[in-house]
Amino acid sequence: MTSSSDALRSDPAPTPPIPGAGPGLPVVDRVDISDVTFSLEVLHPQMARAARAGQFVIVMTHPEGERVPLTIADFDRDRGTVTLVVQAVGKTTREMQQLCQVGTDLHGMAGPLGVPSTIGSARTVVCVGGGLGVAPVYPQARAFHERGATVIGVLGFRNADLVFWEDKFREVCDELILCTDDGSAGIQGLVTDGLRLALEQHPDVAEVVAIGPPVMMQACAEATRPHGIKTVVSLNPIMVDGTGMCGGCRVRVGDQVRFACVDGPDFDGHAVDFADLRSRLGRYRGEEAQALDHWYHACRRAENAVADDLIPAPTGQGA
Amino acid sequence: MAKRTIRSIPQDRTPVREQPAAERIGSFDEVNLGYDADEAAREAQRCLFCADAPCMSGCPVSVDIPEFIRKVSDKDVQGAYETIARTNLLPAVCGRVCPQESQCESVCTVGGALEPVAIGRLERYVGDLAISEGWSQRPYVVPTPYRVGIVGSGPAGMACAADLAKAGCQVTVFEALHLAGGVLRYGIPDFRLPNEVIDAEIAALERLGVEFRTNTVVGRLFTVEQMVDEMGFDAVFIGTGAGYPTMLGIPGDSLGGVLSANELLTRANLMKARDFPMHDTPIPLGTRVAVVGAGNTAMDAMRVCLRLGAESVQCVYRRSRAEAPARAEELHHAEQEGVEFHWLTNPVAVLDDGEGNVRGLRCQRMELGEPDESGRRRPVPVPGSEFALPCDQVVFAIGTNANPIIGQTSKLVLNRRGYLQVDDAFATSMVGVFAGGDIVTGAATVIEAMGAGRKAAASIKRHLGIRDTSLWYDDPEGARFGIAAHERNFVRLRLAEREPAYSAGPASGAPTVPSTSTAVTAR
C-alpha cells in the first residue's frame, strides 16, 4: 500500500496552498518535535472556525487507511488551520510521519468532534499535560486564560530535549511548572509532583484539567480527590467512526456507560473507571503489532524495488 | 390475453438461485443471485393484476406493483423500471433489503391461496438491469433558485435528495463518514447488498445534480441553525438515523471481546477490516461467537462472523423464532449457513476469563407469557434455568438509539427518547427544517426511511412554494383538476419519455444548473 505514487511525493511542491481551494486538506506546516513526535498544521478554514477547546478530529491518510482520532492541539481562525500533534507509535501514525509532509494533502479529516470543554468560571485552574497530552491541553489553557482565569501549567516530559511549546504555554499561563524524569528541565519528577506543588502554592485552585496517558490522568485524579477539587480528564479510547455509531469508545463513568466520542471526551476524573479504560485500550494489541509488521515488510519491499530501479521509493524524511 | 385467474397462473413461486451455503461462507460475494430474464418472466406470469392492488397499499412508497409486473410480463423491463422509479428511487436496494413478507407480499391476493408473487425479487431484477444497462430517469428539470441541505446520506436522505433534485432544487447532502450511503454502506454487508449497487445509486443521484460532501459532521462543523441563517439553505432535511448502539447493561459487557453489532459491521463493511492488514482497520476475530438479538442486524453480524472464519456462531434471543424481527430470507440464510439458534434464551452476564476477555455468556431460559405492549408475548424467565454458554466473543445486536449530535448542537425539540419531534408534515420545531427516517421514528427499515424522506421532500416543496405535481400528472388518464400538463408554472418535473422529442430536448440528460442561483441565494 505504500507504493501508491500520489501519496508519496519525494519532493513536495513548493507552491503555497491557496486557502479554501479545492477539496484537499493541505498540510501547510510541519514541525518535527522529536524523532517520534511531530505536529501538522492542516488548512481547513471551516473547521478552524468551528473548533473549540477539548475537541478532536478523525483523520484518514489514504482510502485504505484507518480512521484515527487525534485531539486538536491548536486552531488558528485567522490562518484557517488546525494543528495536530502526532506521536508515531503505531502503523498509521508512523505512516503519517513518513507521508504527511508540507504540500501533501490528508485524505480526509472529519470534525471537530466531541463536546467542547466547559470553560467554567473557576478563578484559578491547573492545566496538566503529560506525554501526548501536552499539546491537547493547550487549547484549554488558552481558553481559561482568555476567560480571565489564573492558569498554572504543569507539563511533563522525559528530558529537556523533548520539551516543546514551552513558549506557547508561557503566553497563556500565569505560571508554568516543567517536570522532567531526569531533571534536565524544570523540576525532577512526574506531573503529579508538579501538580502537588501547584496545589500547595495555590490553595484557591478550583479546577484541574489533566490530559495524558490513562495512568497519568488517574494519578492526577487521585492527587486532587482528597482536596475535592473538580478534575476533568480527556479520554482517548479506541474509536472507529467518532460519531456515536460503533460504541467502541464506551467508557464507564460512575455507574453509567458513556461514549467518549459524543458524550465526551471530557469526563469527571473522579468518576472514570480507569482500569476499564486501560483494559479496553489493549484490545487490539495483537492486531496493532501485525499491522506494523506488515507495513515494515511493505516498506522493505518498496526499498528493494527502488534499488532495482523499478518504482519510486517512500522517502519520508521523518522516519 | 385471457384474464388470469388463480387457477391459470403458475402455481409455484419461481425459486431464486443462491450460492450454496458451504461455498458462500468463504466469501463476501452476494448470496442471492437474483432472477434471470426467463425466471423473471415466469414469476411475472403469476400476478393477477388486481384492480384494487392490495400490494400497493402494503408498500411504504406505493410502488405501482401491478403495472411494473405487467411490463416485466410484456418483456418491457425498461418500462417496468420507469414505473418503479416514479416512486422508488432505489429498486436494486429495496428489492434486496425490504421485508417484503410483511409488506407488499403479505397482502398479495395470490398469497391467499398460493405463495405470494415474489415482488421483491422482481423489483431487484428490474433494478439490477437498470444499473447494468445504464437506464436512469432523465427528468426534464426546471431549475428553481432553491438550495436544500440534507444531513445524512442514508436511505431517508437519498430519497429526499432525489425528489428535491427532480423538482429543480440545488441539493447538497452532508455525510459524517468518509463514504456516502449511511446504513447501506456501513451496516448492510456486501453479501446482501453489494457496494457496487450503492455506488450506482449514488452515481444516479449525482447525475441528477445532487452534490455529496463527505467527512462533514453537521452540528459540529456547522450547525443546522447556521445552515439556515448563514449558509443560504432555504430548507434542511435531517436524516441522521438511529445509529447509537444499545449495550445490554449486564455485568461484563465492557470486556475485551464484547462489541456492538454496529462496531463489527462498520469495521467489516465500511472500513474493509476483512482485508486486514491490506486495509488498516483490524477486526476482532472470535472462534466461538455469541450474537445477542435476532433482527436483521443480528443476522448480518452472525453471517459476517462466519465469513471471517468463526468456528461457531450462536444466536441468543429471549423470544421465540416466531417473534424474531429479521426478514424471513435472512433468518433462513443464517440457518442454512450453520448459525446455532438459542431461542427463548436471555443473557444475564458476560463471563470474564480473568484477563479481561470473554469466557462465556451466562444465560437463562425464558418462556412466553402474556402479550406486551408490542403485541408480542412477553418472555419471562424460567426459575433455576441458568447455564453458561461458552464463547470468546459477544456481539450485541439489540437495537439502537437516536444519534445525539443534532440534539446536542441545536435547539430542535426532541421527544422523551431523544428523537426529533416532527408534525404530520415532517416539519421540526424550526421553520424550514424537516426530518424523517430513524431519527424520528427510531430504528425501522430502509424503505420506511425512504418513504419518510419522500414525504418530507413533498413538504419541503410545499414550504418552498414548489407545486408537487408528480403525483397528479402521473395519472394515465391525463390532467386532473383542470390543470393541463403543459402549464409550466406548475410542472417542475416531467419524466422524459423515450420519444426523440424529449431526449433531444435541450435540458434532458445532464441536470441544469440554475443560472440565477448565485444572485438569489447570495443573501
SSE blueprint and pairings:
The complex is a heterodimer of chains A (319) and B (523).
Chain A: E1 25-32, E2 37-43, H1 45-50, E3 56-60, E4 68-76, E5 81-87, H2 91-99, E6 105-106, E7 108-113, E8 124-130, H3 134-147, E9 150-157, H4 166-172, E10 175-180, E11 187-188, H5 191-201, E12 207-211, H6 214-224, E13 230-234, E14 250-253, E15 256-259, H7 260-263, E16 266-268, H8 274-281, H9 285-307
Parallel strand pairs in A: 8-9, 8-12, 9-10, 10-11, 12-13
Antiparallel strand pairs in A: 1-2, 1-6, 2-5, 3-4, 3-7, 4-5, 13-16, 14-15
Helix pairs in contact in A: 5-6
Chain B: H1 21-24, H2 37-44, H3 54-57, H4 65-73, H5 77-85, H6 91-97, H7 119-133, E1 140-141, E2 147-151, H8 155-166, E3 170-174, H9 183-186, H10 195-207, E4 211-213, H11 224-229, E5 235-238, E6 244-245, E7 258-260, H12 261-270, E8 288-292, H13 296-307, E9 312-316, H14 328-336, E10 340-342, E11 345-352, E12 358-371, E13 377-381, E14 387-390, E15 393-396, E16 400-401, H15 405-409, E17 433-435, H16 438-441, H17 446-464, H18 470-473, E18 493-494, H19 500-503, H20 517-521
Parallel strand pairs in B: 2-3, 2-5, 3-4, 5-17, 7-15, 8-9, 8-15, 9-10
Antiparallel strand pairs in B: 1-18, 6-16, 11-12, 12-13, 12-14
Helix pairs in contact in B: 2-4, 4-5, 4-7, 5-7, 6-7, 8-17, 12-13
